[in-house]
Amino acid sequence: MTTTDGVDVAPGTTGGTATAPRTTCDARTVPSTTVAALAAHEVTVSYGRQRVLDRVDLRVDPGETVGLHGPSGSGKSTLARVLALLHAPDAGHVSLDGHRVAGVRHRLPAAVRTRVAILFQSPRAATDPRLSLADIVAEPLRATGVPAEQARARAAELADLVGLTPDLLARRPHAVSDGQLQRACLARALVHRPAYLLCDEATAMLDASTQAHLAAVITDYQREHGAGVLLITHDPALMARWATRVVDLPPPGT
Ligand SMILES: Nc1ncnc2c1ncn2[C@@H]1O[C@H](COP(=O)(O)OP(=O)(O)OP(=O)(O)O)[C@@H](O)[C@H]1O
């Protein structure tokens, strides 16, 4: 097992598989053997005595959109947070492009953690109310030491992509709509050009036109960069339109 900066070569993650066709299957049986992928391997998570995920395997290949489906409380958001390298599983591990990830959040090198981005349902819970939207978008760049001028230019480019005008960029969260704030969160998520984007009910509280616009930005990004997307949604139409395959999590307690 070779150790590089914060990542180990994961056993059982060599060899390649093509992007799978649309299938619905038990998440615990999905094979997880590919080099270029973001994958959960036998991931188990409990909160206190409640086991939420029990030896779950899930793989997202570059360029594909994997839908994650399951009843409320089945652990979809928990699994997304594990894959986003925000929450350490109690057992099992995450691999990133064939390397076992050892650690979460800032314990990981920036080059590892910035390969995965997550977009949550509530932009208000995910943003600092004291920052302008421009600062919210540029925040991850500043956190990784990108020079201010370069960060501003990249943030402006992304703001344009998601449809935020300079007037909106100067405002703070309390002075914009949820849709406008979620646009800023999407720009922030893309700012490091992640290889994998996890969307956890990211468009659920948006009106139809904002939802369509953000979905178009993400699919364009995905096409241009070959990014893998994990899509969590309770909207069957969105799932059917976007997901190339769907993985089911079993109901809680089964
Ligand atoms: N930080 C936490 N502390 C304690 N319990 C938690 C925590 N986060 C989630 N849970 C519990 O874990 C279970 C799974 O939650 P999770 O949000 O992952 O499910 P979900 O499938 O995304 O649900 P939904 O579709 O309703 O969003 C739930 O019973 C939830 O109450």
UniProtKB/TrEMBL annotation:
<feature type="domain" description="ABC transporter">
    <location>
        <begin position="38"/>
        <end position="254"/>
    </location>
</feature>
<comment type="similarity">
    <text>Belongs to the ABC transporter superfamily.</text>
</comment>
<keyword id="KW-0547">Nucleotide-binding</keyword>
<dbReference type="GO" id="GO:0016887">
    <property type="term" value="F:ATP hydrolysis activity"/>
</dbReference>
<dbReference type="InterPro" id="IPR003439">
    <property type="entry name" value="ABC_transporter-like_ATP-bd"/>
</dbReference>
<dbReference type="Pfam" id="PF00005">
    <property type="entry name" value="ABC_tran"/>
</dbReference>
<dbReference type="InterPro" id="IPR027417">
    <property type="entry name" value="P-loop_NTPase"/>
</dbReference>
<keyword id="KW-0067">ATP-binding</keyword>
<dbReference type="InterPro" id="IPR050319">
    <property type="entry name" value="ABC_transp_ATP-bind"/>
</dbReference>
<protein>
    <submittedName>
        <fullName>Peptide/nickel transport system ATP-binding protein</fullName>
    </submittedName>
</protein>
<dbReference type="InterPro" id="IPR003593">
    <property type="entry name" value="AAA+_ATPase"/>
</dbReference>
<feature type="region of interest" description="Disordered">
    <location>
        <begin position="1"/>
        <end position="24"/>
    </location>
</feature>
<dbReference type="GO" id="GO:0055085">
    <property type="term" value="P:transmembrane transport"/>
</dbReference>
<dbReference type="GO" id="GO:0005524">
    <property type="term" value="F:ATP binding"/>
</dbReference>
<keyword id="KW-0813">Transport</keyword>
